[in-house]
Amino acid sequence: MTNNQLMSRLSLNQITTEQWNLQEAVEGCLRHDVPRISVWRHKIEEVGLKQASRLIKGAGLQVSSICRGGMFPAATAKERAERLDDNKRAVEEAAELDTDTLVLVCGPSADKDIDTARAQVAEGIDSLVPFAKDYGVKLAIEPLHPMFAADRSVINTMNQASTIAENYNQNEVGVIVDVYHVWWDPNLYAEIERAKGRILGFHVSDWKVPMADMFKGRFMMGDGVIEINRMRKAVEQAGYNGPIEVEIINQSLWDRAGDDVLQEVKQSFAKYV
Amino acid sequence: MTNNQLMSRLSLNQITTEQWNLQEAVEGCLRHDVPRISVWRHKIEEVGLKQASRLIKGAGLQVSSICRGGMFPAATAKERAERLDDNKRAVEEAAELDTDTLVLVCGPSADKDIDTARAQVAEGIDSLVPFAKDYGVKLAIEPLHPMFAADRSVINTMNQASTIAENYNQNEVGVIVDVYHVWWDPNLYAEIERAKGRILGFHVSDWKVPMADMFKGRFMMGDGVIEINRMRKAVEQAGYNGPIEVEIINQSLWDRAGDDVLQEVKQSFAKYV
Question: How much is the ipTM here?
Fold first, then answer.
């Protein structure tokens, strides 16, 4: 793959420039020749879906995914139904923004019972599939690092994500490979191969020691220990040649000018992805 | 199991009261009727092995394990040989203190190549086994949480630990089940069953959100989300009825009086383990 081909796959995951609102992010992408963006729902909410759609389409940007649906487990059936409704709104937003990929961060347990929470995730996805299919939107299960099992997602390995996804057609449910969440997995490359045909996204950042903050501690590609290039080649081997989202959640990046961040993103993307 | 039987299995892992030197920890165990202790090597070094042995045996305390050997991967063959020598000293210390269990924290990669690091762990253990066997000391591989893959251990699941252990006899190599490190694992209970006959220790603490510090952020049993009692019953089902070490690495506990900490340890052990 030439460098130009690689750069054409770059997508700015909007959380990387959390300091920008949607309009600023769209304009930033145009200024820096970034052809794609992954849009977060709290940024859509700020301007409303119609205006978000106008901004993005007017700029000719492609939307690689919507972040995020999920958060299925809850203590009561009523709450779980409300979560499902919210996921349906996320599907509608994805369709309106012309992306076929809704990223699912599946949610933590409401109590100590992690097995039940995992079952509720599977049930939630099962309930959402027909609705999403009507809109032409695929559900992309993103396994989160096991250190988030208590507060963000009880789906923590590629194995879990693929086991759920395989209950459905490839155009209904797939998985996201985010290097930060899965790089440690002893079965990583076998699981990437297994996910062939179901990989709906590839997210990059890096893991560096010491990590001051579990949530906002991700680093720029190349600054840490993750074999990003090896993983990129593995997902390509498994048939994935779609957008590559740069998703770096890091307070120190948010404290800088967005243009500086985006420039550095492009440089380290070209060098280390 | 009666409460008395359970309490007779309690072992103070010395890092829980890091503010105490070895003599203070031994005296604390006597004052609080804690029958066992897990000894850290930096605490032995402070007083010397002979004096450590006199203190512990004079008090009639049983040593549940020595923490810790391991740290096998390194960039050069010379460094790896030095690590192996250090592990042999740890075996000698275990034998001198009349414990048959040396806990292995296997070490991080020297660079980005995690596969090679994992191979170096397997090689290191293979080199250490005959030496340890001569001393009657078993090597207890402790899988560490995946969030420590970059800085403490590339062995991150029960599956990895058992896969290495199964190359040897049960009296040579086994595994440690530490609830903090493995509670998130979707295969946990199957892996505990698989480890039957090879479980050499059960360590308890708790995981609570938010976690301010990945290393020194462990909580008292009952304060977090881990199903400790369920896991204790599972390891018993798998034949383990030995010492249960309380290993809580938490700066706020170290800032308190050791006697207060030990009292609280006993209370939450009785209630939640």
Answer: 0.97
